[in-house]
Q: What sequence folds into this?
């Protein structure tokens, strides 16, 4: 019927824009050396800033533009601006923000369970696994200067949440919404997990995607999901910056550029000694802040996981209203059969398997 035909086309479009996203990423990786040559001669901070800008273009702007083209025939109720209006029911907005600890607990619990699974599998295969180090979900590249630290924070806490929520909980949600709320929540969460291109991050980003999808439904606002997404990423971004500062990463340039101490005049030597003392004090301060923030994260994890566990019995009470549509309703099994067996979705499955093999190798 018409509903099945539209769903097949929508599933094909989802597979198409996701495949395009990974294709662009691979083309960039292949041409990394050529791209790097463009930044030769620039200062470290300027080069890093340009790399962030280029990353935004090929990671978000180009794929989102392609997604807009793919879903150009999909009506956007009220236009994209309406997605960023605060919820009419302010209580829902307050509840959504207040439930951030539970959402964080869901994400971290899923992350830890995933890592435990990897740990067991790799131990059975005879390989080692640095469990604590793998909890870091922001990668391992520490910023080298305060300027790059600011750029990294902006990227994680503001830019990524804005684009990803506009993309998944905006454009894609709008295209999938006519086929049912539950289907929209889980299908966008699935694409959200795959989008991160990391098998280790897939499971907890899928769980977060489900939570954000539910908030999108209840609040009918991408603004709220963007705020929650930004809050979640900010915790990891702040931890990354404090780790860099406490490790002395921001002192490196000064120490490397210092002249040979034996050639310094008494006045220069005194200034140099004062600067070293100041750097030591800053190092102690950032170390203390890092320790305090680590304690804060641990408390947030425990409280968040407990809050999420308390909400599990309430999940059965959730009722979803049917979307206003003229389409004939389909059974959930039929929806998922059509969506998951779409030809281009198999390309995504191959990508996931490839990422898993690549991560292991």
A:
């Amino acid at each position: 019927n018409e509903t099945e035909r539209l769903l097949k086309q929508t599933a094909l479009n989802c597979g198409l824009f996701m495949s395009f996203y990974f294709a662009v990423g691979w083309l960039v990786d292949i041409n990394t050396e050529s791209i790097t040559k463009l930044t030769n001669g620039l200062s470290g901070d300027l080069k890093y800033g340009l790399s962030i800008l280029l990353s935004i273009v090929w990671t978000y702007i180009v794929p989102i533009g392609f997604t807009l083209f793919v879903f150009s025939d999909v009506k956007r109720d009220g236009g994209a601006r309406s997605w960023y209006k605060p919820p009419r029911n302010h209580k829902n907005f307050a509840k959504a923000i207040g439930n951030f600890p539970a959402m964080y607990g869901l994400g971290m619990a899923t992350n830890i369970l995933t890592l435990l699974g990897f740990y067991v599998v790799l131990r059975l295969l005879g390989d080692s696994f640095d469990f604590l180090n793998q909890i870091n979900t922001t990668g391992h590249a520490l910023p080298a200067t305060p300027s790059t630290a600011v750029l990294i924070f902006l990227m994680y806490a503001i830019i990524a949440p804005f684009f990803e929520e506009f993309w998944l909980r905006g454009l894609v949600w709008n295209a999938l919404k006519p086929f049912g709320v539950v289907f929209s929540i889980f299908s966008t969460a699935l694409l959200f997990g795959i989008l991160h291109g990391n098998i280790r991050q897939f499971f907890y980003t899928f769980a977060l995607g489900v939570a954000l999808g539910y908030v999108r439904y209840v609040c009918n606002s991408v603004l709220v999901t963007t705020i929650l997404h930004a809050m979640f990423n900010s915790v990891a971004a702040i931890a990354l910056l404090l780790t860099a500062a406490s490790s002395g990463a921001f002192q490196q340039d000064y120490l490397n550029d210092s002249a040979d101490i034996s050639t310094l005049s008494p006045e220069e030597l005194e200034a140099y000694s004062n600067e070293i003392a100041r750097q030591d004090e800053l190092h102690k301060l950032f170390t203390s802040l890092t320790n305090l923030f680590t304690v804060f994260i641990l408390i947030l994890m425990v409280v968040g996981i407990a809050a999420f566990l308390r909400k599990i019995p309430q999940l059965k009470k959730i009722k979803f209203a049917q979307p206003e549509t003229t389409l004939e309703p389909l059974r959930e099994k039929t929806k998922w059969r059509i969506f998951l067996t779409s030809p281009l979705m198999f390309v995504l499955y191959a990508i996931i398997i490839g990422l898993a093999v690549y991560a292991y190798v």
